[in-house]
Amino acid sequence: MKALVTGGGGFLGGVIVRMLRERGDQVRSFSRGEHPALEDIGVEQFRGDLTDRDAVTSAADGCDTVFHVAAKAGIWGSYRDFHSANVTGTGNVITACRANGVATLIHTSSPSVVFDGRDVEGGDESLPYPSIYKAHYSKTKALAEQMVLAAASPELAVAALRPHLIWGPGDNHLVPRIVAKGRAGSLRRIGTRANLVDTVYVDNAARAHLQAADRLTADRAISGKAYFISNGQPLPLWEMVNRILAAAGVPPVTRSISPKLALAAGCLCEGLWGVLRLAGEPPLTRFVAHELSSVHWFNIEAARRDFGYQPEISIDEGMIRLRKWFITGTS
Ligand SMILES: NC(=O)c1ccc[n+]([C@@H]2O[C@H](COP(=O)([O-])OP(=O)(O)OC[C@H]3O[C@@H](n4cnc5c(N)ncnc54)[C@H](OP(=O)(O)O)[C@@H]3O)[C@@H](O)[C@H]2O)c1
To answer: Which atom of ligand 1 is nearest to the CA of 73?
Structure first.
């Protein structure tokens, strides 16, 4: 395989490129910054912004497979910024695939594309896109996913993977936020119920990308679909949070606030950060308050059936690796 990985220097993209290199594939990464660790493992780097169509098209030249992993993630920012990176950027990736005769496009989507704030228990890919989104991230990821699925053609086979709450060594989003708040003593449980949530260890999410690409390359009949990806081990959310804190050597979160109060606090923070243009992300938003107080776990049978996805690293094993990373800085 000659693969382009957009965002190959990021958390998930970094593991995808490592796995591709380990099996001998030629790999390119496309991102704005320079990621020196990629040079060490023989990954060619193309620097540019997803919004620059020519730059993305040059990066895909000569590739047979594209993993479109790069995106603007996070809970805060203008709709315009989310739209440029996630929607315009994905449009440019599709154009680049068509211009270069790329055969397979694997797009990293997100389960948040179907999240409307209500509980989801074992939901599968028949869940509809909501009419209203609670965050720019989820709305723009949903628009991007729909563009990718609509781009399926006899020449270009596509799949969108929806990994749920990726964690593991190297995480630069979920784990550091939890640990920083835990250390500062500012973390609160939202509500007291044991709301089940599933998550995915980063290597499992990355492996799913390779499996989907291999399957699509061999059999284009499954092209044009989205798949939930998780560890298939839903746990009470606050148990999972406490396990991450324990891996970092931080005491568990014990204090709680009600979901109503959390929602009001999220609303207040959004207002303050919006009106006063405060720097950084607000500590809470309505979207996060909903996410932290709801049940949301998904059925991964379609990924098992269509490309043999199997979460190889259990949560227990992942926690051992995470602990090692906190202690030694290596996984
Ligand atoms: N982490 C999760 O829990 C989670 C869950 C579900 C889905 N996802 C999806 O998984 C994907 C990867 O997420 P991640 O957690 O690995 O994020 P990440 O570490 O922030 O990686 C994203 C990478 O994309 C690149 N990038 C961002 N904007 C770009 C732009 N405008 N042009 C070119 N490159 C750009 C960044 O590199 P530069 O800064 O160098 O440009 C970055 O290395 C995303 O599509 C995200 O939506 C993540």
So the answer is: 47
Average pLDDT over the chain reads 95
Catalytic residue numbers read 137
pTM of the shown model: 0.95
Phi-psi region of 188 (alpha: psi -120 to 50; beta: other; left: phi over 0): beta
- In the chain, the number of structural domains is 1
Residues having CB closer than 6 A to ligand 1 are 7, 9-13, 31-33, 49-50, 69-73, 85, 89, 108, 110, 141, 163, 165-166, 172-174
Contacts of 233 (CB under 8 A, 6+ apart): 198, 311, 314, 315
In a mutational test of the pocket of ligand 1, which residue from 57, 69, 112, 177 has the highest number of ligand atoms less than 8 Å from its CB? 69
156 domain residue, yes or no: yes
**What does the pLDDT look like over 160-172, one tens digit per residue?**
999 999 999 999 9
Phi-psi region of 7 (alpha: psi -120 to 50; beta: other; left: phi over 0): left
Distance from Cα 112 to the centre of ligand 1, integer Å:
15
Contacts of 34 (CB under 8 A, 6+ apart): 9, 45, 47
Mean pLDDT of 76-81: 93
CATH number at residue 8: 3.40.50.720
Name the closest-CA residue to atom 15, ligand 1: 11
Enclosing domain of residue 24 = 2-167+200-230+297-312
pLDDT band at 76 (very low <50, low <70, confident <90, very high): confident
140 CA to centre of ligand 1 in angstroms = 13
Q: Find out whether 308 and 215 touch, Cβ atoms under 8 Å.
A: yes
pLDDT tens digits, 183-227: 999 899 998 888 999 999 999 999 999 999 999 999 999 999 999
Q: Is 293 left (phi over 0), alpha (psi -120 to 50) or beta?
A: alpha
